[in-house]
């Protein structure tokens, strides 16, 4: 099709106005989670499971984490 604006290599020839970082905020589930009532059923340190749910701006922070007291899997109840 001639004149449709896209090359055959799969790349768009026009600029996208949305910043990928802004898309993360727009589609974040963090705002839907009741973080006060999150439960981790097999956490080593009590209440540490609540700390790993954080807003987009803090997604790269790794100082807060949760470890399982049994195996590699974590069991969460996320309201």
Automatic annotation (TrEMBL):
GO terms for cellular component: cytoplasm; nucleus. PROSITE patterns: PITH. Residues 18-79 form the PITH domain. Transmembrane segments: none annotated. InterPro entries: Galactose-bd-like_sf (IPR008979), PITH1-like (IPR045099), PITH_dom (IPR010400), PITH_dom_sf (IPR037047). It holds the Pfam family PITH. Belongs to the PITHD1 family. This is PITH domain-containing protein 1. It comes from Caerostris extrusa (Bark spider). The gene is pithd1.
């Amino acid at each position: 099709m001639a004149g449709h604006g896209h090359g055959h290599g799969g790349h768009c020839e026009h600029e996208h106005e949305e910043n990928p970082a802004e898309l993360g905020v727009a589609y974040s589930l963090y705002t839907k989670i009741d973080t006060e009532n999150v439960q981790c059923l097999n956490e080593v340190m009590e209440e540490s499971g609540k700390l790993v749910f954080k807003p987009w701006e803090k997604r790269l922070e790794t100082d807060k984490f949760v470890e399982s007291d049994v195996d590699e899997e974590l069991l969460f109840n996320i309201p």
